[in-house]
Design goal:
By secondary structure, the protein is mostly beta strands. The protein has one domain (about 35-255): Jelly Rolls (Sandwich), CATH 2.60.120.200. It is built from three helices and 17 strands. It has helices spanning about 5-10, 170-175, 180-185, and strands at about 30, 40-45, 50-55, 60, 65-70, 80-85, 100-110, 115-125, 135-145, 150-155, 160-165, 175-180, 190-195, 200-210, 215-225, 230-240, 245-255. The longest helix is centred in the first third of the chain and has 4 residues, at about 5-10. The protein is globular. About 40% of the residues are buried. The model is unreliable at about 1-35 (pLDDT under 50). The protein binds 2-acetamido-2-deoxy-beta-D-glucopyranose (3 copies). One 2-acetamido-2-deoxy-beta-D-glucopyranose binds near residues 199 and 200.
């Protein structure tokens, strides 16, 4: 079975399979911070939703400011993108005028059909303080166009980082929850192995601390994993009052299989 020895899936990586992110240079911004690596290029301004493609495997959509190049201290991501969402619930919206406005800056893998298997990895850094509420704030989604929504998500919600599974009983699958402070202000490495499919799908997600390699969170499940689907990661939330601004860095995306 696909998941009985899932850790071995993450071990042998042929370098030729790794797809590096290539940057889209649009506008260079001179840099006066203390990180000489990080010359920044603005990809999206935050005044309207923007879209772009990084490679055949990865695209982005951004209603908040998005930069190629990161200047946050402590971020260990080479090919780095910086994502900001305003604390103001009427700013950086993807849907101005909606009664349920959302702020969304997400990267997404190429849409893939039921029955296909994929393995992806990216690095992620979420700066504290993170404002959470009872409302959704997705850091990762398995998004199924066949189902018209997410199959499962990684959320910052109610003061914790949690897996939400919309198609299984979390009391049986053991959807994990970790404290926000375990996850924030450090570079985390996210590895997803997924087989999409309405009935025979499977999913394994492991988040490690890049500095220690310690596993911070893992989740495996099988059953409906969607179709015409993508893995999405970044910051996507309902815009509500009393939010905090959200600052994150994402990058070093790889297609492992
Ligand atoms: C750091 O990057 C952000 C974009 O995420 C930018 O708005 C800000 O001006 C940069 N800060 C410095 C000191 O360059
Ligand atoms: C799921 O797997 C079972 C057992 O291998 C097979 O009979 C069935 O056709 C599969 N369903 C789909 C939708 O692929
Ligand atoms: C996948 O979803 C996209 C976007 O909704 C749609 O345009 C496309 O037709 C879908 N493809 C399949 C094979 O269903």
């Amino acid at each position: 079975m696909f998941f009985t020895n899932a850790l071995s899936l993450f071990l042998p990586i042929s370098a030729s399979l790794v797809t590096p992110i290539t940057c889209l240079a649009i506008e260079s911004i001179s840099q006066r911070d203390n990180n000489p690596r990080s010359s920044q290029t603005q990809l999206a301004s935050g005044s309207a939703i923007g879209y772009g493609k990084i490679s055949n495997s990865l695209s982005w959509q951004a209603s908040g400011p998005l930069y190629s190049g990161c200047n946050l201290s402590g971020v260990k991501i080479s090919d780095c993108y910086q994502l900001t969402l305003s604390s103001v619930a009427t700013q950086n919206l993807e849907d101005y005028g909606s009664s349920t406005p959302r702020q969304r800056t997400e990267f997404l893998t190429a849409s893939a059909a039921a029955g296909t298997t994929h393995e992806y990895q990216w690095s992620y850094f979420l700066k504290s303080p993170v404002g959470t509420s009872t409302h959704f704030f997705h850091l990762m989604q398995l998004f199924s166009r066949d189902d018209g929504g997410p199959i499962l998500t990684l959320d910052a919600i109610n003061g914790v980082i949690a897996i939400k599974d919309n198609y299984r009983d979390c009391s049986k699958t053991g959807c994990p929850t970790i404290p926000l402070s375990t996850f924030t202000d450090k570079t985390t490495i996210h590895t997803v192995a997924v087989t999409y499919g309405a009935s025979n799908g499977s999913f394994k997600y492991v988040i490690t601390d890049s500095a220690t390699s310690n596993v911070l969170l893992s989740y495996s499940a099988s059953g409906n994993m969607g179709g015409n689907a993508s893995i999405k990661f970044g910051t996507y939330r309902l815009a509500v009052s009393n939010m905090k601004s959200s600052v994150a860095a994402v990058g070093d995306f790889k297609v492992l299989a």
